[in-house]
Amino acid sequence: MVKTGVAVKKAEREIFLKNRLEELKTIENQLRAEGFQYIAGVDEVGRGPLAGPVVAAAVVLPADFDVLGVDDSKKLSEKKRNELFDAIIEKAVCYGIGQKDQQVIDDINILEATKLAMIEAIENAEKMLEEKLEKQIDFVLFDAMKIDAVEKPQQSLIKGDSRSISIAAASIVAKVTRDRQMIDYHRVYPHYGFESNKGYGTKAHYEGIVEHGITPIHRKTFLKNIIR
């Protein structure tokens, strides 16, 4: 009976994930019906941390993308994000990463740095698309962002990482890319808990700053109340 129950739950879970996948593909399917073929979903991670870069990803998925479980990266475990990252990279028509470090963030503010990272991600994805298929991205879906400098048809979706398969995929790619960088930074700066807090303002992180000062990857404009 236990095995039967487990099998039923597994089957129900698979049905749920398949339905969720089709739900997330609705916007892209509508755009394809309008004649757009290479639709890039764009998302970012790292606007809030005290340290490290802001990272953006742009992902173009094929119409027959069939990887189950892709969703808003915040809803997924670290293990699942890593598994899906590999599947997305393998199945994507193209993808690109963009990032801006703490110096750029301090110089022009986090919003403008985020926009630049997104533009860079789109440009890198388009380079891959041109090299592979000699095509260009013809529509961009942003998660709650509008960037006039991107001279392509575009749409801003509130909570886009929960509504669009392309944006959800981009959220995972951006999150895993940044998390891996912060784990690497932890090996260089071991006193701030970067391997677990990824640069966000946890108790351990603040204690590390008080005891050891700031590192070259800290955002000084985010620490005005601490550093004088």
Rounded average pLDDT: 95
Class from secondary-structure proportions = alpha/beta
Total helical segments: 8
CATH topology: Nucleotidyltransferase, domain 5
- The CATH fourth-level homologous superfamily: Ribonuclease H-like superfamily/Ribonuclease H
Please provide a brief summary of the model:
The chain has 228 residues and is an alpha/beta fold.
How would you characterize this protein structure?
This protein has 228 residues and is an alpha/beta fold. The chain is 50% helix and 13% strand. It has a five-stranded mixed beta sheet. Helix 3 crosses helix 6 (165-188) and helix 4 (102-108) packs across helix 5 (110-133). It is globular, with a radius of gyration of 19 Å. The N and C termini lie far apart (66 Å).
Topology, please?
Elements: H1 2-24, H2 26-33, E1 39-45, E2 54-60, H3 78-91, E3 94-100, H4 102-108, H5 110-133, E4 139-143, E5 154-157, H6 165-188, H7 194-197, H8 203-212
Parallel strand pairs: 1-4, 4-5
Antiparallel strand pairs: 1-2, 2-3
Helix pairs in contact: 3-6, 4-5
List keywords for this structure.
50% helix, RNaseH_sf, alpha/beta, 228 residues, five-stranded mixed beta sheet, EC 3.1.26.4, 8 helices, Ribonuclease HII, RNase_HII/HIII, endonuclease, Nucleotidyltransferase, domain 5
